[in-house]
Design the sequence.
């Protein structure tokens, strides 16, 4: 059947109306993503206008380029640069005839003739826009069986272009809404999630991951201020290999530390300066990609991480922002606000995790202290042996954290009695274990001691020196750095009333002679504390020496630790040796136990309400 | 989280599985979109995206997943997700992705529910 021209037009109009309805359906069908629906729009436009070739180009305002959303036949995906004055010209033109374009567009057409296959495909361009917003171009090829569009076809083309413009704008708005919805959800979701993390390392990792995803970034880091140090130290970085590009020669552990004192105004263009400034001002900051290689030299944005009381704990850094189809997008004011909000939540989470960790460590330390206390108490003798012709008494008062005081009075298998007092450096389990080592070593040495007699007094001195060297070696290999013990040992031979003593860096005991005279024991022959230096260095510094004293009836020997003489009162004065001497002088008519009590009471009276942190130990020997 | 970015494709007779590894951002998302599109062009209308090795997704990754759902929907196809973390699942439900795609705990369940 041959249709008249009028009938043909009516049929095409009906077809066009039905296609327009389909366009409307496409728009409201939920297929809002223009990248997916663009082919449908192009197919309808080409079919309705009876055009065989064409394309829809979408405009990306931020970087001034067009991309091919759909084309028939298919063109290679590419970015087509367009100048702002060319966009302006397109906005002012309802249509552009490629054979006679506006002067301002000629250069653009020439530039992209090959890219867009202008000769074969594109004869008429219709700028896609809503009000003054340029969205893209609908490009049409040759018209089938006619040189140009009829008037009604022109009107139809205008409607089609408008529909496509709405679809692009709708798609972009939908994308923006989805993105904002995602960000808001992430912001709401991330807070309770990261606040549940109790390990600082886990919290740091999650905070950085969430910030990176939230701000469409590709780099993230958390840097925290170190306690008592003006440094920002890296807690976590994403991706983990980003620092590999930095010069890490001086930083083998890849700790990455920024000193907050060394950065000055001359470095105001660097990322380091920006991060330090964020800490100092407590305000979000940004810097573009820099010559310095911090986090790969990307554009960075950083927000202050604050604790509950507002103190800045560190900085949360994100970098290398991306947008769909491109990297290195700039962070916006909205991004700054978002980072700020997230950093506030992150601050609470980071602080929580650190407080939890500190509480755990404190609990662990307390448990360790309890264990150490038990070990230490087991090392202190409950009762002291009876020494014929002598009285002996001891007092041990734990005060504050577990220290390392030790005293003992041991009957020797060979002959005589060993009186020892020591103070191990440090606190806690390490001190308790070192004390246990010292005691075990001492008992072992004493069990192998030879029997002295009057003619062997010199040998006894040497024996004590040998014992000190053995104990020194034992403690040196057992202890960690700065672990040592001050030690005073006296061997008492009751048969001869000879007291042979050796001092390893301990407070010299004092002897209150029956006459009232005071003698400081071992003061002149002091040696090094045990375990401080290896044996081969001891003779070079201060070799051990021993001395001998003959005790007479009524003589009192008072051994003590620095917990006695270093007790402070509320005026921060030390009890010191002078007060000990004074009270000792008043003890002539007392037995050993009473002397212990009297000295202890004197120290406690002096202390009053002042706090004490060191143990107090006394060992008193009195010749009847 | 492993810093490994990768997509593994396993095309079976009636369905195909895409496994992602690493941060689902623009780069990995575009790669995923391209591979999904290739499968759709080949006639696959039942796809599984396994996100077990992807702990982190940004808004661009989400928009690309939505794009794949729409592309499949145009062909009356189905997309099922599996291997999502609890947070990802909540995100997918909130973003209405779960309305147009299935969410299953593992690949077996995702495949069985086409």
Sequence:
């Amino acid at each position: 059947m041959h249709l008249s021209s009028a009938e043909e037009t009516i049929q095409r109009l009906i077809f066009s109306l039905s296609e327009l309805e389909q366009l409307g359906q496409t728009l409201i069908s939920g297929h809002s993503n223009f990248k997916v629906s663009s082919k449908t729009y192009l197919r309808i436009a080409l079919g309705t206008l009876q055009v065989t070739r064409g394309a829809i180009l979408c405009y990306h305002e931020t970087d001034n380029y067009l991309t091919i959303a759909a084309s028939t036949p298919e063109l290679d995906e590419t970015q087509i640069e367009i100048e702002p004055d060319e966009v302006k010209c397109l906005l002012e033109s309802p249509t552009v005839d490629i054979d006679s374009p506006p002067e301002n567009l000629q250069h653009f057409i020439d530039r992209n003739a090959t890219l867009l296959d202008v000769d074969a495909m594109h004869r008429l361009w219709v700028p896609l826009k809503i009000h003054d917003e340029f969205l893209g171009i609908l490009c049409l090829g040759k018209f089938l069986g006619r040189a140009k569009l009829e008037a009604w076809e022109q009107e139809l083309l205008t409607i089609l272009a408008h529909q496509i413009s709405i679809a692009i704008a709708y798609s972009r708005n939908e994308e923006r809404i989805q993105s904002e919805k995602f960000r808001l959800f992430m912001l709401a979701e991330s807070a309770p999630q990261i606040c549940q993390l109790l390990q600082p390392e886990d919290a740091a990792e999650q905070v950085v991951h969430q910030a990176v995803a939230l701000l469409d970034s590709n780099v993230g880091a958390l840097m925290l201020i170190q306690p008592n140090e003006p440094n920002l130290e890296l807690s976590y970085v994403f991706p983990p290999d980003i620092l590999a590009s930095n010069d890490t020669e001086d930083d083998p552990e890849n700790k990455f530390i920024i000193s907050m004192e060394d950065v000055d105004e001359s470095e105001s263009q660097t990322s380091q300066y920006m991060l330090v400034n964020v800490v100092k001002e407590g305000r979000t900051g940004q810097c573009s990609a820099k010559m310095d290689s911090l986090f790969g030299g990307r554009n960075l944005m950083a927000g202050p991480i604050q604790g509950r009381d507002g103190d800045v704990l560190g900085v949360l850094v994100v970098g290398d922002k991306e947008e769909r189809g491109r990297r290195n997008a700039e962070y916006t004011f909205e991004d700054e606000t978002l980072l700020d909000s997230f950093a506030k939540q992150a601050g609470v989470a980071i602080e929580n995790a650190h407080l939890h960790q500190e509480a755990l460590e404190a609990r662990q330390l307390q448990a360790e202290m309890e264990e150490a206390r038990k070990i230490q108490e087991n090392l202190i003798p409950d009762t002291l042996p009876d020494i014929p012709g002598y009285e002996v008494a001891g007092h041990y008062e734990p005060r504050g954290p577990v220290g390392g005081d030790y005293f003992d009075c041991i009957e020797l298998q060979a002959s005589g009695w060993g009186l020892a007092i020591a103070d191990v450096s440090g606190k806690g389990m390490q001190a308790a274990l070192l004390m246990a080592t010292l005691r075990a070593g001492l008992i072992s040495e004493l069990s192998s001691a030879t029997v002295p007699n009057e003619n062997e007094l010199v040998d006894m001195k040497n024996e004590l020196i040998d014992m000190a060297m053995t104990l020194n070696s034992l403690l040196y290999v057992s202890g960690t750095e700065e672990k040592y013990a001050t030690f005073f040992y006296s061997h008492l031979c009751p048969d001869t009333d000879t007291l042979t003593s050796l001092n390893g860096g301990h407070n010299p005991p004092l002897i209150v002679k029956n006459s009232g005279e005071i003698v400081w024991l071992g003061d002149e022959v002091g040696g090094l504390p045990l375990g401080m230096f290896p044996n081969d260095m001891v003779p070079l510094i201060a070799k051990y020496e021993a001395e001998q004293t003959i005790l007479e009836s009524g003589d009192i020997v008072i051994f003590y630790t620095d917990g006695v003489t270093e007790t402070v009162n509320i005026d921060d004065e030390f009890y010191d040796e002078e007060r000990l001497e004074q009270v000792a002088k008043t003890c002539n008519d007392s037995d050993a136990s009473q002397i212990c009590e009297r000295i202890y009471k004197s120290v406690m009276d002096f202390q009053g309400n002042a706090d004490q942190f060191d143990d107090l130990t006394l060992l008193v020997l009195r010749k009847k | 989280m492993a810093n490994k970015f990768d997509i593994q494709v396993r095309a079976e007779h009636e369905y195909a599985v895409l496994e992602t590894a690493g941060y689902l951002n623009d780069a990995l998302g575009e790669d995923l979109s391209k591979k999904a599109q290739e499968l759709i062009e080949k006639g696959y209308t039942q796809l599984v995206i396994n996100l077990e090795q992807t702990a982190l997704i940004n808004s661009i990754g989400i928009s690309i997943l939505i794009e794949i759902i729409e592309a499949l929907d145009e062909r009356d196809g189905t997309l099922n997700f599996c291997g999502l973390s609890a947070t990802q699942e909540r995100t997918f439900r909130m973003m209405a992705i779960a309305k147009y795609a299935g969410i299953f705990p593992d690949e077996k369940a995702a495949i069985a529910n086409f």
Residues 179 and 214 of chain A are 10 Å apart (CA to CA). Chain A is about 40% helix and 20% strand. The longest strand of chain A covers residues 485-493.
